[in-house]
Design a protein that fits this description.
The chain is of the alpha+beta class. The chain folds into 2 domains: 2-89, no CATH class; 95-172, no CATH class. It has helices spanning 95-115, 119-134, 139-148, 155-172; strands at residues 2-9, 34-35, 47-49, 62-69, 73-75, 78-81, 83-89. The strands form 2 sheets. It has a 4-stranded antiparallel beta sheet with strand order 1-4-7-2, with no helix packed on it. Strand 5 and strand 6 form a beta hairpin. The longest helix has 21 residues, at 95-115. 34% of the residues are buried. The model has no long low-confidence stretch (mean pLDDT 93).
């Protein structure tokens, strides 16, 4: 069974964790199939992608649509399959969109920090300050901090879901 998913890679279509240089699609269609090669670590032994609900957990330089093939399993905010191939680059993902995403995350963190009360107010303000500090350095780190400004028990997960939905809506536009 094949499934289309998202995959973030570094410049040059290089896996951020594996260091694997992915063969890119050509004019005739998707790139060649890549079989999973086992390597050490918790994520070894699979080709990884993600769904729209988990985009912000994997931000990197370039976003691709990947086709996963075989028995596709969902685990820890990712999809894992025995093989995959790059289908096309998502050109909507660029520095401008990354900055708009960060700005949207910071705007939400400002609202959350302003609404925080008591001892949590200072903590939420600290997370907001960290999100602003990282805004020009690392979109993923900025959004991670911004999501922490939601101090409720499920606040972080709720904010990460909001961030992913926001990004997915922009990619679909």
């Amino acid at each position: 069974m094949t499934v289309l998913a998202y995959k973030f890679l570094r410049h040059g279509s290089v896996g951020p964790f594996s260091g694997f240089a992915w063969p890119e699609p050509g004019p005739a269609g998707p790139g060649p199939w890549v079989e999973a090669r086992p390597f050490r670590g918790a994520c070894g032994g699979g080709i990884h992608g993600c769904d729209a609900d988990h985009l912000v957990y994997w931000l990197n330089d370039a976003l691709w649509i990947i086709e996963l093939d075989g028995e596709v399993a969902a685990a820890d905010k990712k999809l894992i399959a025995p093989r995959g191939r790059l289908v096309r680059r998502v050109t909507a993902w660029n520095r401008e969109l990354a900055r708009r995403l960060v700005d949207a995350g910071i705007a939400r963190a400002r609202e959350l920090a302003a609404a925080a009360a008591g001892a949590g107010a200072a903590l939420a303000q600290g997370y907001l300050a960290d999100a602003i500090t990282f805004a020009d350095l690392d979109a993923g780190a900025s959004l991670f901090c911004a999501a922490h400004a939601a101090l409720a028990e499920d606040g972080f997960a709720r904010e990460r879901a909001w961030q992913s939905r926001w990004l997915a809506s922009q990619l679909a536009a």
